[in-house]
Fold this protein.
Amino acid sequence: MGDSIKLRYDVNGEDFVTCGQASEDVKRTLKGIGIPSATIRRVSIAMYEGEINMVIHGGGGVAEVEIFEDRITIVLKDTGKGIADIEKAMQEGYSTATEDIRELGFGAGMGLPNMKKYSDEFAIESKVGQGTTVTMTINFQEDA
Amino acid sequence: MHLRDVVKILDAEILTENDDSALDIDVHTACGSDMMSDVLAYVKDQGLLLTGLVNPQVVRTSEMVDIVAIAFVRGKRPDKMTVELAQSKNIILIGTQQKMYQACGKLYAAGLGN
Ligand SMILES: Nc1ncnc2c1ncn2[C@@H]1O[C@H](COP(=O)(O)OP(=O)(O)OP(=O)(O)O)[C@@H](O)[C@H]1O
Ligand SMILES: [Mg+2]
């Protein structure tokens, strides 16, 4: 049993341009330890969607990632405006994104459903005015 | 289809600096979209993305779904930072004057599946 790899990233809520760097780094790390590419893609999409949400909706925060032998856990925590109705937010096509965001290519309301679809365990907690925490676990063995 | 053929069919300009051999890569399928949300949600094994968007998240989105080349349509051109970002990820950028519908249609007609 090897030790886990722990990674921590500050996700700058002001910076749409650099958004995605944490997901990139995780992708690189998984590649480096020989995780199958189909699994890496699931992790990358789920984490990147979450990172984008932290920036366009959550005002930025912290991403904490732990890579174990058989799985990865990703915790995305922001202290932004929170989500009033999580059930609604989880529906495909539901989005409060502004026209500006849509012009950048986001805001189809697909992110959260997509994150859930690609993770083996998915949890979201949110308090209006306090922030949102998304926790995802993706197992490695299934695609091996 | 080789990327070289895509360049020819779209009468495209190559925007990243690559070895000439980079154009020998094979792209089996393509996807055309201006919504990165949809690319992330629906793309399976598309090697090529056609898009009218030029912001850096187009490159990041492509990297996450293992897209190897991006064709910018309608004469749109990314800024230097976006080109450098693509370069650092070995993603090839090309640009065409053609509109999305034409560009996709020509590639499809030439045998590039979806
Ligand atoms: N971290 C967050 N903080 C506050 N609100 C959020 C957060 N994440 C999601 N939401 C809310 O949930 C909605 C749905 O999120 P989802 O990621 O599914 O879609 P989107 O971000 O609007 O569009 P897409 O992900 O397709 O680009 C958002 O429009 C927003 O209202
Ligand atoms: Mg989203």
About this structure: The beta strands of chain A are 5-12, 60-67, 71-78, 121-127, 131-139.
